[in-house]
Amino acid sequence: MTRFYAPDIESTHALPESESAHAVRVLRKRAGDEIEVVDGVGGLYICRLLTEHHKSAALEIIERRELPKVWKPEICIAVAPTKHNDRMEWLIEKAVEIGIDSFVPILTARSERKQINVERFEKIAVSAMKQSLKAVLPQIHPMTPLRDYLKSLRAGTQNFVGWCDSESERKLLAKACAPAHDTNILIGPEGDFTPEEIDACLEAGFTAVTMGDNRLRTETAALVGLDTVHIINQVFSE
Predict the structure, then answer these.
(1) Please, is 78 exposed, middle or buried when counting C-beta atoms within 10 Å of its C-beta (0-12, 13-18, 19+)?
(2) What is the pLDDT of residues 168-214, one digit of tens each?
C-alpha cells in the first residue's frame, strides 16, 4: 500500500498539497482508494481517499496504529557538510533509512560549505522515512557552529568524534561504544578539525575515535559510525 506523510492529519483529515498532488496526479489515486499515512511522530493511519483534489485530498481515517522506532537509544549524527551537496543529501537519505533521531550540520573552521538548504534536507528525510516504512521523522537542524553544538549536549550521552590524526590516541568506535546509551557522533570536514576544535570536543566529553583502518570520506565515516552504533545495540540488546 502506498504511504504518504501528513503531520497534521488528526486536525485536517487531508493530505498536504505536495502529497495530494503526488497521490492524485502522479499515482492516479481515486476516491475510495485506501492509503497509508504517517504523521512523523509514530502514528500510522489507514485511510480512505474521499476527494481527488490535487491540493488538499480529503481523507477518512479508518484505523490508527502506533509505529514507534525500532531502536531504543537516541542517535544523533553531526557532520560538517561537504562541498558537493549531493553527498550530504545521499547521507541524509541513507541515515534515515538506517535510523537516526536527529541530524546536525556543523560549521567548523575548515568547513567547505557554509550554508545548507534545510527544507531540501527535510524533504529527503521525509521521502526516506516513507520508503523505509518508518513513521518517525528525524529532526533536521539548521547549520550550527561547532561551539554552539557542544554547548547544547545533554548530560548522560556518550559522545564520539571522528579524528584523522593517527599519531594521537584514539579508540575504535566499535570497541568504545556501549549499547543502550543515547549517542552523538561528530564528523568533521574533509580537512579535519583544527587542534583547537579537537581540544574543545575532548573538553566537552567526547571520545576521539576511528572507524577503522580505511580512509573514509566525510559522509562515509558518518554512515559507518551510525551503522556501528546500531549493530552494537542489536547484538547486545536484551
Answers:
(1) buried
(2) 788 999 999 999 999 999 999 988 999 999 999 999 999 999 998 88
